[in-house]
Amino acid sequence: MPGDSAVEEVELPGGYTLMVRGPGIVELLEGEVEVFGARISRGRRLQVPEGRVLPLEAISDSFLRSSAEPGEVVKGSTVPNSWAELAEKALEARKILVIGANDTGKSSLVLYAANRAAREGRRPAIVDADVGQSDVGPLGTIGMAILREPAPTYSELEPADAYFVGDKSPVGHLLPMIVGSRLMVDEALEAGAAPVLVNTTGLVEGSVGWALKVHKIEALRPDLLVLIERESELEHIARSAPRDVKIVRLRPPASMRKDRGWRMRYRAANLSSLAARRAPIELDLRSLRVLNASSLVLEEDAELARRLEVAAGVRPVAAGRFGEEAVAVFRDRLEQQSFSYASAVLRSYGEPRIVTLDRLVGLYMGLLDGRGRFAGVGRMTDLDLRSGALRGEAAFVGARDVGGVVFGYLILDDQWQEIGSIRPGYFRSDRSISKYVFSTGFQSIPSSRAISLRPCTPMAASAASSSTNVPRPSTSSRVTMAAPTR
User: Fold this and answer.
1) Longest Cα–Cα distance in the chain
2) Were 359 and a residue from 7, 115, 402, 441 both cysteine, which residue would form a disulfide, CB within 3.0 to 4.6 Å?
3) So what's the pLDDT on residue 89?
């Protein structure tokens, strides 16, 4: 066991519960304990993830060896009676959707109810749509696992499939969040699983939280909608739910409060586990399905590329039109003046968009197999659009047959730790370049720092008056630009 100096042996009388906090390992030496509805017998070892708290309820007098941080000892069970009652109701349902703010015990309740169903001989499934604190599958995915026996921790579950969203927050990804949840629920049902329990993010406030949760209810049509609320913070969601959806309201257990930094540590641990099994990859995007990167899938326009080179003094890696957009892809970030001139050229073709590939080093990616199913995640280290070569690292969950790439939104360093992110929409159409806020990979500056473009320099003026007919930005034109932010 790691950290032998921190290992302790603990005697736990029957009828008492010991709370332990990860990271660490707990081994049952004697007796029998129950964890979230799963019975643990002598000799069993449990991996306690970073930041997670496990309640070890002694069914009989037990002896434990633990390297996890010990917490309080409580007489009786820490599982609320309301959880046990819900677990009974869940046996009669096919789809159960659990909604609550952060630190209300959603993931613990879902695991407990699934374990209780497994103990009754059912074949429950868990769909984990909490992309920022993924318990089933890699960070930024909606994972699905089918339980064949009770599992005391999520780390013992093997994902059956996952849907890659690519970010730690659902904001800006409402459609993928809903589509991915529906696909995973449908797949679980088709595999014969029931009940299917769906965990969700803690985004419940405001119009975005309302839209995400209400439309997810519409898409999934759960038999049971479980609302975990401290007071009445979910009333706006309950009032918008379809009348035929049965609602169960619960209070969160007091023991579910977590320290403020645990989410960051948990994400770091999730990414570290992926980095530990990474392998180099080189893919040819020309032969693959590419998602979330529409601006990179261009029909090359040689004339536009030539005009951009004359105006900006730098030849783009690629240039062309995508729908109403005029897109230029450069290897490195442009100087302010070159950016302004390139924007003016693009604006004569359509809505301008400028992408710089150097800002995409470390981009988090999802990998699909030849059938379009989730195959793993990766980190981009280089992208050559001329040859279509994408180089990077990948952590596969199964066969290494890559048939598609889904571009994500997080930027990872060479140790697979988060160092930045890209705003949603960075490869998709927007109304105008003046609306862009800087996101890694794009150049812009906040509107409060908008500047009037100066008249062309003699060199640029000469180019603009030549037969290439490069549009010359007027002194009244405004383009928003920004310094990079993490």
Assistant:
1) 90
2) 441
3) 97
Q: Which single residue is written with the structure tokens 């660490």?
A: 24
Average pLDDT (21-27) is 92
The residue type found at 197 is L
pLDDT, one tens digit per residue, over 305-352 is 999 999 999 999 999 998 888 999 999 999 999 999 999 999 999 999
Domains of the chain: 4-75 (2.60.120.1030), 81-262 (3.40.50.300), 277-486 (no CATH)
Other C-beta atoms closer than 10 Å to the C-beta of 119 total 16
| Distance (Å, whole) CA 72 – CA 137 | 30
Query: Are 57 and 104 in contact, with CB atoms under 8 Å apart?
Result: no
d(CA 301, CA 80): 64
Cβ atoms of residues 171 and 131 within 8 Å: no
- CA atoms lying within 13 Å on the CB side of residue 114: 33
* Cβ neighbour number for residue 254 with a 10 Å cutoff: 9
Residue 177 to residue 163: CA distance in whole angstroms: 9
Length of the chain: 486
Helices of type H across 250-334: 262-275, 302-312
Place of tokens 């007796």: 31
Helix boundaries (H) for 233-364 = 235-238, 262-275, 302-312, 336-347
The conformational region for residue 316 under phi > 0 = left, psi -120 to 50 = alpha, else beta, is beta
Distance, C-alpha 462 to centroid of its chain: 49
Please give the helix or strand (H or E) that residue 265 lies within, else none: helix 262-275
What residue spans of 91-192 are helical by DSSP H?
Answer: 106-119, 174-190
Cβ burial, residue 260 (10 Å; 0-12/13-18/19+): exposed
Distance of CA 76 to the CA centre of its chain: 37
Residue 265 token pair: 């540590």
When pLDDT is cut at 50, 70 and 90, the band that residue 300 belongs to is confident
CA angle, 224 as apex, 121 and 374 as ends, to 5°?
70
How far apart CA 260 and CA 403 sit, in angstroms, is 39
Q: Please state, in angstroms and rounded to a whole number, the distance separating the CA atoms of residues 14 and 416.
A: 43
User: 351 - beta bridge partners?
Assistant: 325
Is residue 41 predicted with pLDDT exceeding 50? yes
CA distance 451 to 480: 7
Task: Name the pTM for this structure.
Answer: 0.84
| Band (371; pLDDT cuts 50, 70, 90) | very high
